[in-house]
Amino acid sequence: MNVIQLKKLQALRNKLFEAMVFDTNPENWVAYGKPAKDLTKQEKDEAAWCRRQAASAIALWEKIDKLIVQHSESNKVAKNIQEGHEQLDLIAIEQEADSLLTQIGIDRAD
After folding, report:
1. Using an 8 Å Cβ cutoff, are 16 and 61 in contact?
2. Does residue 34 lie in a domain region?
3. Which domain of life is it from (predicted)?
4. How many structural domains are present in the chain?
């Protein structure tokens, strides 16, 4: 996943968070505060749907967040590996330069 895609996914995660907060608020559910014995069949079904919607919103947000974390970590690992290779390249160049200077009789002062 490239950086642009990761940024888009992070923006989506932020929008999903707001939706999740709204969906999980019981005050937004059908028949909130009404005793179960006073609910009609339709209200019971709609209240159950609201609870399932809240659970689905949480699950979706968690999956998106996990995906972002996985790809962020893999990008960090790849960056660390690249930086490690660059360090090794610099060390090799320095050693080669020291070797060439020694061959032509110049002692490098560190």
Report:
1. yes
2. no
3. Bacteria
4. 1
Which residue type, as a one-letter code, is found at position 41? K
Domain presence at residue 41: no
CA 6 from centroid of its chain's CA atoms: 8
Mean pLDDT of the chain: 84
pTM over 0.85: no
> How far apart, in whole angstroms, are the C-alpha atoms of residue 13 and residue 15?
5
For 107, phi and psi rounded to 5 degrees? -95, 120
Q: Sorting pLDDT into bands at 50, 70 and 90, what band is 93?
A: confident
| 23: nearest Cα among 47, 53, 43, 49 | 53
For residue 72, tell me if it sits in a domain.
yes
Asked if the structure places residue 30 within a domain, the reply is no
- Structural domain boundaries enclosing 89: 3-24+47-103
φ/ψ of 6, rounded to 5, equals -65, -40
